[in-house]
Specification:
This protein is of the alpha+beta class and 381 residues long. The chain has 2 domains: 172 residues, no CATH class; 99 residues, no CATH class. 41% of the residues lie in helices and 9% in strands. Helix 15 packs parallel to helix 17.
Length: 381
C-alpha cells in the first residue's frame, strides 16, 4: 500500500460522503464467524418461505471468504432514505395505497451500485488490490457486516439501526483483498424497547432479533408468488408494496429527520396513490408508472393482487365497480384477489349473484376456492 492506512481511509470516507453515503465503516472479512450457524438455524425453521435462493446459497452467504476467498476486508456504506413524513399516517387513508418508503424512488440497486463502483475504483487505484461490490444482489449478509463495521446494529426487527439515520439506510458492500484497519463493531443499543415487535400486524417476530418471513407482509406482498394467505389479508390493510411498520416506529428515527441534505427523496406520485387509479392499470400502464422502480420487478399480476387486497380492505363501495371488472381478468392471480375484494365490499345477495354468474365458467382451482372461502365482509347490508 503506497499511502498510510489512515490517509487512505480518510480519503475513502470523504469520497463516500461526497457520493451521498452518510455511513462508512470497515470490518474484517472474518469478523462474523457466527453467521453460518445463525443462517442455518433460520433455514431449518423454514423462515425463508419461498425464497429458495437463500438455502441454495447458504454456504456462500454465511461468510465473505466463502463467497470470495481473497476477501480480507469489507467496507460497508449506508445511504439515508428516511421519509419526510410518517409513513404510518398513510395507513389511515384506506382508499390510497401505502408503498414502502424504500420503493418510492428509483430502484436503490441502480442508485447505489454506480456510486459504490466509483468508491471501489478509488480503493483499487490506491492499493492495487482487487475489489468486488455488492448491493443486495449477491449472497452477502449486509446487516451483520454493517454491525461489524460499526455503522449500526441489527435491531430487534433484524434491520440495521443507526444512531444517525435510524432504520432508514440502504446498504452497500465493497469486498477487497487489501488488509484495512477495522472499525469497532457497534454494540446493540435497543435496550428494553420493543416497539418494532409490538407493532407488527402479523406477529412475524418469533422472538427479538428473529424474523419469520412467512408471516411478514413485506415478504408476502413482494416475494410470495401466489395468493396472499387469507389469514394475513385483513392485516395487510392498504399496504400494496412492502410494510414499514417496524421500521417507522423505531425511536432512533428522530435523528434521521435531521439529515435532509443527504436523503433520497420520494417521488410525489408514489407517496400515497389512489387505489381507484392503480386498480385500473393494465400491464403497459403498470410498466410506465413504475419504470425505474423496484416495484416493477414483481410484475403486473402480483401488484394488482396487492392492490385488490387493499381495495377489499378499503370499505369504499365506490371501488366495487373496479374490483368487479377484474373478475374477468385473464390472470388467475388477479381474478382470485378480485373475488376476495368484491365479496368484502358487496352485500351477500350481490356476492351470491356474482358467484352464480362467474363460478360455472371458472377453470382455475385457486379462483374457484376463493368463491367458496369464508370471507368476513366489510358491508353487512
Amino acid at each position: 500500500m503506497s499511502i498510510s492506512s489512515s490517509t487512505l481511509l480518510a480519503e475513502l470516507r470523504d469520497r463516500a460522503q461526497a457520493l451521498g453515503f452518510g455511513a462508512f465503516g470497515v470490518a474484517r472479512a472474518d469478523a462474523r464467524p457466527d453467521l453460518p450457524e445463525k443462517l442455518g438455524a433460520a433455514l431449518e425453521r423454514h423462515w425463508h418461505g419461498d425464497m429458495g435462493w437463500m438455502a441454495e446459497t447458504a454456504e456462500r452467504r454465511g461468510a465473505p471468504e466463502a463467497l470470495w476467498p481473497d476477501a480480507r476486508s469489507v467496507i460497508m456504506v449506508g445511504m439515508n432514505y428516511g421519509p419526510d413524513t410518517d409513513p404510518m399516517a398513510d395507513l389511515g387513508h384506506p382508499t390510497r395505497g401505502n408503498i414502502s418508503v424504500y420503493a418510492r424512488n428509483r430502484d436503490y440497486h441502480d442508485i447505489i451500485k454506480g456510486k459504490l463502483k466509483e468508491l471501489a475504483g478509488l480503493l483499487s487505484r490506491r492499493t492495487g488490490a482487487e475489489v468486488k461490490v455488492f448491493v443486495d444482489t449477491a449472497p452477502v449478509m449486509e446487516k451483520p457486516l454493517g454491525e461489524a463495521a460499526g455503522i449500526g446494529w441489527q435491531g430487534k426487527h433484524t434491520v440495521l439501526v443507526s444512531r444517525e439515520f435510524g432504520s432508514w439506510l440502504f446498504l452497500g458492500a465493497i469486498f477487497t483483498a487489501a488488509e484495512l484497519p477495522a472499525d469497532d463493531p457497534h454494540p446493540e443499543s435497543c435496550g428494553n424497547c420493543r416497539r418494532c415487535l409490538d407493532i407488527c400486524p402479523t406477529n412475524a417476530f418469533p422472538a427479538p432479533f428473529q424474523l419469520d418471513a412467512r408471516r411478514c407482509l413485506s415478504y408476502l406482498n413482494i416475494e410470495h408468488p401466489g395468493p396472499i394467505p387469507h389469514e394475513f389479508r385483513v392485516a395487510m390493510g392498504n399496504r400494496i408494496y412492502g410494510c414499514d411498520d417496524c421500521l417507522a416506529v423505531c425511536p432512533w428515527n428522530k435523528f434521521a429527520s435531521l439529515t435532509h441534505e443527504a436523503r433520497l427523496m420520494a417521488r410525489d406520485d408514489l407517496k400515497s396513490p389512489a387505489l381507484a387509479d392503480l386498480v385500473q392499470l393494465d400491464d403497459a400502464g403498470f410498466r410506465a408508472l413504475f419504470a425505474g422502480s423496484p416495484i416493477k420487478r414483481i410484475g403486473h399480476a402480483r401488484f394488482l393482487r396487492n392492490v385488490l387486497i387493499a381495495v377489499g380492505n378499503s370499505g369504499d363501495p365506490a371501488l366495487v365497480v373496479h374490483a368487479e371488472a377484474r373478475l374477468r381478468d385473464t390472470d388467475p392471480l388477479i381474478r382470485g384477489a378480485a373475488v376476495w375484494a368484491v365479496r368484502r365490499l358487496v352485500t351477500k345477495t350481490r356476492a351470491d349473484a356474482l358467484e352464480l354468474a362467474f363460478l360455472t365458467d371458472e377453470g382455475d382451482i385457486s379462483v374457484r376456492a376463493e368463491w367458496s372461502a369464508a370471507v368476513q365482509p366489510v358491508r353487512t347490508n
